[in-house]
Amino acid sequence: MAAARAFGVLIGFSRRDPYVASGDVVTVVANAPFYESAMHLEDSGGEWYVSSVVTPTIDVTSPAADADAGPTVHVRLLALDALQYLATVQVNDSTFTPGTQLKKSTSHYDGPTTAIGPDSEVGIYAGVIPFARRKDQWGYVLVLTVTPDGAVWAARTVRIAD
Length: 162
Known about the structure:
6% helix; mainly beta; single chain
């Protein structure tokens, strides 16, 4: 639980957001009841760390999981419309790249909305993150739903490699 709370505060969840543990998954609910993020934890030599984060309100379509990252990372997602999204890259030395605000596409999404939430408008968002590659580097793209006042309501990660 401590690892999930520390990670949540690091990426911008409120300290008052409720966390619920179920085995090695800790769920944080921000701005209940619609924004839930599940943090998957792994034990490595007695130390717990967050290995991935998922949410039903963000569906990252690019990059693909375990994709090779080039000098730029193209991020594309389907997500609840009328919100702001930020993407950044965290690398194996635990540093974050400067993030990029994802821009909403002018084209509309006409597919099923069950993965994003019932009766919700879905927007297509995209952006490019500059990525200074190093040999044998790994990390993940972190996508955040960010309110105008900077609060994080949901997060999703996608693991990448070089």
